[in-house]
Amino acid sequence: MTDTILALDGVSKTFKSKPAVTDLSLEVRRGQITGFLGPNGAGKTTSLRMSLGILAPDSGQVSLFGGPPRASALDRVGFLPEERGIYRKMKVIDVIVFFARLKGVDTATARQRGLVMLDEFGLADVADAKVKTLSKGMAQKIQIIATLVHEPEFIILDEPFSGLDPVNQSALEQVVRKQAQAGRTILFSTHVMEHAERLCDKIVLIAKGRKAFDGTVSEALARVPRRVLLETADCADLGSILSGLGSVRRESEDGRDIQVVELAAGADAQDVLKALVAKDVKLTRFEPVRAQLHDAFVQLVGSPAETPAQSETV
Fold this sequence. Notes:
Helix content is about 30%, strand content about 30%. The protein is α/β, with parallel strands linked by helices. The strands form three sheets. A six-stranded mixed β-sheet has the order 5-6-7-3-8-9, with helices on both faces. A four-stranded antiparallel β-sheet has the order 11-12-10-13, with helices on one face. It is elongated and about 75 Å long.
């Protein structure tokens, strides 16, 4: 059994002379949670559709479970598309059973699993309600259940957190963790960095259809300059004191004068503190800044205007 579930090798796709994805290669390995990250319009959805054979690449190759995407392979996949849509006039449990049957699950098993999952999602009381009577958030939960009810080996979620309020975003994170703990492989796209930072074993960053980074979250964060924010009682210039430990620049924050130290290689925040204490600098603020994935994307892509959101609240 191969450890590689999905592999894209140099795939490209153009629509009406406009490149959507260019020479993209990535690998999703068994048991990992992989985040596919980038701003809206970066090419994430096109890439996922090529991964499943919904779109054919103009060039390059796609391998799913060791071969080209086929119907037999797709039965082992649970896919939540970006465009949400379930049959509004059907009963909730009937929708779940219908999608499970499409993946080869018998009716009795599908219904049993569906009822259990509805209960887990706090939706047991709407099993016999029609989809059209549900709120947007509840309907999205039903579609997530329909994606998972056949117990797929490989789960692909395209912008799964979009449209959910913060409480339901947190609940969905728990669902993703539970699926991973059950041994499933997960690939999800998002333009919100916080979800990926909390969930992923590996991330792939994409911008303007091209891969900008492929590695672990910690490897991405290592690309971000480490910083310390300082304020002093007398607004002393700290550049000469911290020479060799990093570069110092002044910024304004809420009308206050602060100094930002970008640490040099091999230096850390404690070295800065020791140097300042040794010179009897009267500090009113000493704040090492934790790098965030959004900062890594800015560093890797180089254009803040092209970067994804740090958070999304609805």
